[in-house]
Amino acid sequence: MDYRFSDAMSNISPSAIREILKYSSDPAVVPFSAGNPAPEAFPVSRIAEISARILSERPITALQYGATEGYQPLREHLCRYLKEKHRIGSEADSLIITTGAQQVMELAAKSLCNAGDVIITEDPSFIGSLNSFRSIGAKLVGVPIRPDGMDLEALEEALKANPNAKLIYTIPNFQNPTGVTMSWEKRQGVYALAKQYGVLIVEDNPYGDLRFAGEDIPAIKTLDTDGIVIYAGSFSKVLSPGMRVAYAVGPEPVIRKMTVAKQGEDVHTNMWAQMVTYEFMQEGFEQHLDSLRAIYRKKAELMMRLCDEHLVPTGITYLPIEGGLFLWATLPEGADMPRFCTEAVKEHKVAFVPGTAFLTDQSVPCRSFRLNFSTPTDEAMIRGMQILGKFAHEYLK
Amino acid sequence: MDYRFSDAMSNISPSAIREILKYSSDPAVVPFSAGNPAPEAFPVSRIAEISARILSERPITALQYGATEGYQPLREHLCRYLKEKHRIGSEADSLIITTGAQQVMELAAKSLCNAGDVIITEDPSFIGSLNSFRSIGAKLVGVPIRPDGMDLEALEEALKANPNAKLIYTIPNFQNPTGVTMSWEKRQGVYALAKQYGVLIVEDNPYGDLRFAGEDIPAIKTLDTDGIVIYAGSFSKVLSPGMRVAYAVGPEPVIRKMTVAKQGEDVHTNMWAQMVTYEFMQEGFEQHLDSLRAIYRKKAELMMRLCDEHLVPTGITYLPIEGGLFLWATLPEGADMPRFCTEAVKEHKVAFVPGTAFLTDQSVPCRSFRLNFSTPTDEAMIRGMQILGKFAHEYLK
Question: If you ran DSSP here, which 8-state letter would residue A284 be given?
Fold first, then answer.
């Protein structure tokens, strides 16, 4: 049988990241390639205790079908919480619980874009979201990212050149893969341009709670008096990715359409996970976030120190970060980055992700790579960066 | 803001079923409209016990990111189980765990169909799947269903008339909404036609384990020496729908493409639910299925008795069933079915679903409606059917 796939799905190439991740499953490999929360960041005993209570007191609610929009107590709590803590959400907005934040991107794109419509995105950006957009046949137009966020001139050019642009996709805090945070001025600029050109914004904020230095910058969604921002939040980095609980806050008609789309995908999100998340938020949630920030501050500072010590002397540069889980490093001019990544994992058992994977056009030359510091233990980080430094020294001389 | 949605999503009308379900949330309403497993069918204490063990012994596996394909022990166990018990799956097949079986339909359609491509389906069929297909822009072509399954002549005509048909969608066992089971001869016929016209089959089997009378008929997938059948199974009706665990077995290249599509939707299915499902299958699973069949046999037999007693004398007919969760009833010629459904729920607080909801073309006249007997208690069923009989008697005289 000669299988012919849809045009959209045929255009997604098996990603470089998966190749690298294959090697990473070898326990001898130092996994700077993943994006997993640190094992010590999981509030295991509280989840076990909450889960036992739910399965004893309300088992049928946890095991029966639920509403597509999500578990009502969690929806209501999140609406209040986001309004009070982050000034996110208005009377004109609605909230849907999703199976991970990836689903927000897919549902938004599916609801708003026909095949061939354009989605404008930071370039590089999170490969999962890019593939999500590709899977519904959207055309990606990349806008370069600077140390303070999207290049606004390039964004305006992209909007002018693509009258069929439907969405602007951004990760404003500790962007994946670059770790860059968008300045308040640029957030206002992106909002103004989106409004001017009649395009919606998808604001993806999985790492916002993981700021360990500097000051929080309000979400673009806080500016949204025009009903043009779909805001995505997630519990994957602050509670558990395996539970797959996230949410979107957006204009009611858009969330309603996304709900219809979700009904055709997974009907609703796992009920147990929604109930555990709700109960978990009722007590000590802020202290839990504090403890996560302490964990990742320590790991990030260690990682930056190791970069300074082992990579910078070889000519590799990196962008310093104030939060999130990733560092973006760049080889000096003339260096062959893909080969560097491949040799590092194959011959030295240190895995990280070639920057190419995150580009809207993967054929564009790229000398950067992404280092994750939440997955490996401190010991593995120290060992891995020593090895990487030695290899880089040889490779780049 | 004037929101413009994608063509595919604009074509999905807020379904009649949702209108009816709104009324059903009133606890005074008898819910023949839902499709929920009976509360007594949930193995609550075993799930609680397994869950506690998992969260104590392997919490990080349950809470961390998992593979898109699914939890490996569950995948391997299911492959063996399906092969040994149902002769499903070959060397050329692969298996993916999905977030409910709805996701199988969506992933298959997304992987294989461009907007405008045709999916041929039994008519009526499950509205969730039809909307799933509509959401990716597929055009639905309905083939009438007979008491022994799809009309094969109509199927061949549909295949001839639609060279861009990519999939044939069927629920061969206790079809939703009609309760019809496809004969072995017709299964062979559907397979032969699919092969002849180079079209894949999506075989959706959520109710297969709920046969309480008659003999099991092998799945179409057991015929699949050509790699043309994607088989979908689910734990929603035999363990818990709230957990959202299902799977697809299909040709390896197709499952691989569906895996890429799933990665762009929810990355992977809730890990806890996959682990609970795996552990649950290790002990007493067959006895559990036996106990479910006993529960639903009793409820189905009661429901058929109540139909004979209260509906048949008014001129309403129904198709007898040997399994599943639904009965398909039809008003006598000339009767206004939509008004019958609306008045029943609004004025008599008995909810069921107008057959129109399940049609590929909802503008076609229809006199049938779907009655579910797993959701209401026996007492509610008896009361509801008495009320419905009385109302039908008035309405149809």
Answer: S
